């Protein structure tokens, strides 16, 4: 099978090499998937770059471990199932967020634990389904599980036009919130089409200097100090940080989040989201998708031989919605 192997940390053309490798064999609790599409996420280029250094603890400190194939979000067709697998069989159409120790979506075949697998939504293509894992579960965990958004609450999403942001807008709206989306001029129409009640153009207005108050601020791009974001919260409001990696030599934005959380002068709640892979979140999202309350806005679709180009575009940081690769 063909796969993009991470041979070193760095830019896509230097770090990735398309190779012929052995097709993986599923363990008893795993399913072998013929990958049909891969969804790209910020974590992919962070792992590829080894930036911040914190991510190298997972893949290798000085250089990547041998044989690593990146890509955590995928959709495809079940090729084979392990002995203890009961929910899936050959021919099933599925989507998944793979464990960081396995990854593998940038290859023709990948093994995924049964507990991370979900049946593909009936009203989505493989490309659309591959765009859901990682980003949408992050938004779901932030909006529903951490902020516990209630109908009528005011939710502001900073960085509303990217993968996590577009998902957060739709999830908050589905939960009955009044949603304010912060993005650039060219993306105002996109976020409004996804359900945002209000859209703020950050090139014109700084939301942290407004008199408006919000019950939830979900911050994906961390373009403002956390203290400034907390100033626009109601007394019982909560700041949810979902952009913890960021750029930074050692641990990215994680230190900023921790210091803000420990600041004794801060009177607002602060929570940091670390996405947890689970079929539970994908099943919940599948329900929203099939109820036509959630879509995957895909800006660009690349072919398998264009994986480096797709990652290069993603890394530029101005993606509208999602980028996917057809395998």
Features:
2 domains, Rossmann fold, globular, Quinone Oxidoreductase, Chain A, domain 1, 11 helices, alpha/beta, 327 residues
Overview of the structural elements:
This is Zinc-binding oxidoreductase. InterPro entries: ADH-like_N, ER, GroES-like_sf, NAD(P)-bd_dom_sf, Quin_OxRdtase/zeta-crystal_CS, YIM1/Zinc_Alcohol_DH_Fams. It is globular and about 60 Å long. β12 (233-241), α9 and β13 (269-272) form a beta-alpha-beta unit. Helix content is 26%, strand content 27%. It has 2 domains: 2-133 and 277-326, Alpha-Beta Complex (Quinone Oxidoreductase, Chain A, domain 1); 135-272, NAD(P)-binding Rossmann-like Domain (Rossmann fold). The strands form 3 sheets. Strands 3, 4, 5, 6, 7, 14 and 15 form a 7-stranded mixed beta sheet that branches. The protein has a 6-stranded parallel beta sheet with strand order 10-9-8-11-12-13, sandwiched between helices. It is of the alpha/beta class and 327 residues long. It has 11 helices and 15 strands.
Round the mean pLDDT to the nearest integer and report it.
93
- Major sheet description: 7 strands, mixed
Order of helices and strands: EHEEHHEEEEHHEHEHEEHEHEHEHE
Helix count, DSSP H or I runs of 4 or more residues: 11
The class by helix and strand makeup works out as alpha/beta
Return residue spans where pLDDT drops below 50 for at least 5 consecutive residues. 247-252
Task: Classify the oligomer.
Answer: single chain
Give the helix proportion (percent range).
25-40%
